[in-house]
Amino acid sequence: MNGTGAAASPRDPAAEPAAVRCAVAAWLDWLAAMGVDCCLETVGAASSAASEAERVEPAPAEPSRPSPIGRLAEAGPVVGARELARSCRSLDELIRALESFELCPLKATATRLCLSDGNPAARVMLVGEAPGVEEDRQGKPFVGPSGKLLDRMLATIGLDRSRVYITNTVFWRPPGNRAPTALELATCLPFLERQIELLQPAVLVFVGGIAAKALLGASDGVTRLRGRRFRYEPGGGRPAIPAFVIFHPAYLLRQPMQKKLAWRDLLQLSEELRRLGIETGPPRFLPRGGATAEHAS
Ligand code: URA
């Protein structure tokens, strides 16, 4: 009943569950913080975000043919990488192994190894694409403009670098920020897979479609992969790990209207973390840190 004694109509904001109102308020704050300043649709995206978050899909069908990366499994550098990665018993050993590994051609043109950042004990592991200029300089993933946006995205669902571990599909910067080749991806893959085996995250987040190509053998683009829940099979009899694909922040810097979908994906991830009992901090909305589309790496 409302103050007039009449029954509350379904459109009465006072009758909406607090969680929905809270999600709508957070969504609007997030859009404003991300620089979205106009509305092109009148339908409520937040409520469809909530229902999309509930609609999780099973693992994709096994690819009928090996992916371009899978087809390189017996190439010399890939075999060498696999043997070396398997021999690593800790993250430190893996770092030392990569420092002496000479079979990935990217190493010749990069300044330094750029393997990971964040907390190796975190239950959430993010896998991006490839280091850019700033990452190559600092030796840490996602520290350039797209990393700043990634930090702001994570903050909206109470995550920061103390609560996630971040790595990439390749560990040296491709020259001129070009996309990594299938051979470069295949050569780094054993080290990526070994990181997952060693650190045993509870959730994987593929930042952009390349990581999903490498780790799931997916052939679809990111727009078809996002919004779904996959299962990454780590092998060795270990249980499957839930995996999500989100838009790469460099893409969002170029296509800001897609932030609406990115927000839905973050809500879906947040819901999965809650379901798995993974602790997060309070949602935060970080000020913009100079990330611009022009300088996206
Ligand atoms: N883009 C990525 O995918 N990874 C980085 O580390 C930086 C930019």
Task: Report what the structure shows.
With 297 residues, the protein is α/β, with parallel strands linked by helices. The protein has one domain (70-277): 3-Layer(aba) Sandwich (Uracil-DNA Glycosylase, subunit E). Helices cover 41% and strands 8% of the residues. The chain is built from 12 helices and 6 strands. The protein has helices spanning 18-33, 45-54, 76-87, 91-100, 106-109, 133-138, 145-156, 182-199, 209-216, 222-225, 249-254, 259-275, and strands at residues 116-118, 124-127, 164-167, 203-207, 230-232, 241-246. The chain has a 6-stranded mixed beta sheet with strand order 1-3-2-4-6-5, with helices on both faces. The N and C termini lie far apart (54 Å). The model is unreliable at 1-10, 37-56 and 290-297 (pLDDT under 50).
